[in-house]
Amino acid sequence: MPTLELTVNGTQRTVEVRNRTLLVEMLREHLGLTGTHVGCDTSQCGACVVLVDGVSVKSCTMLAVQAEGAAVTTIEGLANGAGLHPMQEAFREHHGLQCGFCTPGMVMSAVDLANRNPDPSEHEVREWLEGNLCRCTGYHNIVKAVQAGARAMGGAS
Amino acid sequence: MIRPAAGGAAQAPEALSVVGRRMRKVDGLAKATGRARYTDDIALPGMLHGKILRSPHPHARILAIDTSRAAALEGVHAVVTGRDMPTTYGIIPWTPDEHPLCVDRVRYVGDGVAAVAAVDEDTANAALELVEVAYEELPAYLDPHDAIAAADGPFIHEPRKPGRNGNVTKVVKLAFGDVEAGIAAAREEGGVVVEGDYFFEGTTHTPIEPHCAIGLADASGKLTVWSATQVPHYLHRELARVLELDPAMVRVVQPPVGGAFGGKSEPFDLEFCVAKLSMITGRPVKILYTREEVFYSHRGRHPFHMRYRTGARADGVLAAVDAEIVMDGGAYASFGLVTTYYSGQLLTAPYQMPAYRFHSTRAYTNKPACGPKRGHGSVQPRFAFEVQLDRIAEALEIDPIELRRRNALGEGTRTVNDLRVTSNGFLECLAMVEDASAWRRKFRRLPYGRGVGVAGSTYISGTNYPVYPNDMPQSAVQLQVDRSGRVAVFSGASEIGQGVDSMVAYVVAEELGVPLDHVRVFAGDTDFTPVDLGAYSSRVTFMLGNACIDAARRVKRQVQKVVAEAWDAKPQEVLLAGGLAVRAGDTGTQMPIREAFNLAEAAFGALGATGSYDTPKDVHGSYRGATIGASPAYSFTAHVAEVEVDPETGFVDVVQIWIAHDCGRALNPVLVEGQMEGSAYMGFAEAIMEEQIFKTADQGRAGLHNAPSLLDYRIPTSLDTPALRSLIVESIDPEGPYGAKEAGEGPLHPSIPAIANAIYDAVGVRMNALPFSPPRVWRALQAEAARTPAARSAATPAAVS
Question: Helix, strand or coil for residue B624?
Answer without folding.
Answer: coil
